[in-house]
Amino acid sequence: MLLDDQLCFHLYAASRAVTGVYRQLLDAVGMTYPQYLVMLALWQHGITPVKDLVTALQLDYGTLTPLIKRLETNGLLERRRRPDDERVVEVVLTPAGAALRERILTVPPAIGDAMGLTPEEIQTVQNLLRRLSANVIRHTTGTAPTPPSS
Fold it and tell me: Where is the HTH marR-type domain (predicted)?
């Protein structure tokens, strides 16, 4: 059993390397990588129930709630109860949260440059990782994951 032969090690090392680059880029706007993921989901979907963010980001409530609270404290989003069903908490971008998207548009190309992969290679890696995640979830839970809505 050699370290270099372990897929899990290469996934871990790649994840740390990539999130390290994100950390450097996101520090400039005072945001962490997990907070960035929350913002990406909101920029994509707009007003979103917390439950849908849990599914889209593949996080549990205990992990997601502090991220949302910090972003709310920073003035980037608000939590609201849905008027027609107060059991549902929705997350809404503030004007500052919406405006932040423009300031962060340089992040994806900088990450792409750091990766040094062609767009086709990036697409291949994304497809393989999606399949790997779905297979592992199916193997460990006996069910397929719910894909995030687009």
Answer: 4-134
